[in-house]
Amino acid sequence: MAEQYGGKYSPGQKNGPSTGKPAPASREERRTFWMFLAAIPFALKAFWQEPVGLALNLAAFATLVLAAWLTREGVRAAKAYAARRSARRPAIPRKLMATALTGGGLFMGAFASGGALPSAILLGVLGSMLHVFAFGTDPFTDKGMEDIDPFQQDRAARVIAEGETHLKAMKAAADRIGDRNITARVDRFMITARTMFRTVEDDPRDLTAARKYLGVYLMGARDATIKFADIWNRSKDQRARADYEALLNDLETNFDARTKLLLSDDKTDLDIEIDVLRDRLNREGLKTEQ
Asked: Domain map of the chain by residue range?
């Protein structure tokens, strides 16, 4: 079974965020802003050029913007990969593609400005090298998935994606209520639900035991939040508010208990494996510490 997800920004960790808001952007992600900014001069200069220069400068601008966007998405994918105990490598090597596009964009921009071909090529190569130095490369191998069935992993990913859809709809309905306390209460429940998500991601064998929570219960929580938002905006019914808050308390308690049970099952499986190994060693005449 699963081991507890313990990344720095994991839900419920002391050093993690205290609300359902996403963790702040990393330094690498903030650095991609300068890539977007660096593309702007090519767009401004394009309209003072002849048709060929116009086309090349606009192409350089579009290429560099695409490179910046791919870099940002690649940084986010690498961050998610690093945060998980088990993860597949990103399906699309975004950073690698962005490296090539950065070099190509700088080459076109330099050539459009009248630079010699060797100089334009050199600038493109240097730009690609600096991109790798600044942002690194994509993860190229899976990690922690030696004993995980890819079919189970895909099933878990689909169920978790559906659960995230329910949570986003729930959050949107809570924001529509316009009450800070309700919003904070929903954020806290989302943290609890996402802790279960991470537990199932780490070991998809937990999906069977958690599927009702990730599907039926989250769908019910979403529908209840939407209905409460309609009632509250229409009548400010305090009884409905009390019932809704009680529902959130029950959901959070049950989700937390189920997650702890999944984690305790992992310890039980480990204890059984240790006992079996210890008995085998004793039969072979080797002493073990109890």
From this structure: 27-135, 150-283
